[in-house]
């Protein structure tokens, strides 16, 4: 039986970023459902600045693109910087072509230093639409992110935990509907 494959991309270049911690928690939720996960942490896998003049890609870029191509669905996490996505994630997304994301379910996730990261999520969903991906009907935004996780990596707030589980459940359902391989596995 083939497993659903999901690629998670942590779009912060900050050590111990709350958006990356949130993505690691989501990783544990997916693995508990027997979903194959590939975790790409851009703080550990730096990419050269994208240039449309150079299509001879660095090995790190090739790794990211392969992870995206092999995935049935994507979860992208970003900190909110100045009302938008991080430069590290935007740079990674600039390497992607529409045929690598077209028709795949995508869940957008953000963490903000303030109450919410809605602007970054709106920008991220616009980018996904332009790559012909299918945005999940839900998204996840946490505010004041550095204070939200316990030592076990799980969110401290029960309501937040429930919202994250609901959004991940919605994403998994959408991915199953869009992916014949994932649907056949169930």
From TrEMBL:
<dbReference type="Pfam" id="PF03358">
    <property type="entry name" value="FMN_red"/>
</dbReference>
<dbReference type="GO" id="GO:0010181">
    <property type="term" value="F:FMN binding"/>
</dbReference>
<comment type="similarity">
    <text>Belongs to the azoreductase type 2 family.</text>
</comment>
<dbReference type="GO" id="GO:0005829">
    <property type="term" value="C:cytosol"/>
</dbReference>
<dbReference type="InterPro" id="IPR029039">
    <property type="entry name" value="Flavoprotein-like_sf"/>
</dbReference>
<dbReference type="GO" id="GO:0016491">
    <property type="term" value="F:oxidoreductase activity"/>
</dbReference>
<feature type="domain" description="NADPH-dependent FMN reductase-like">
    <location>
        <begin position="4"/>
        <end position="143"/>
    </location>
</feature>
<dbReference type="InterPro" id="IPR050712">
    <property type="entry name" value="NAD(P)H-dep_reductase"/>
</dbReference>
<protein>
    <submittedName>
        <fullName>NADPH-dependent oxidoreductase</fullName>
    </submittedName>
</protein>
<dbReference type="InterPro" id="IPR005025">
    <property type="entry name" value="FMN_Rdtase-like_dom"/>
</dbReference>
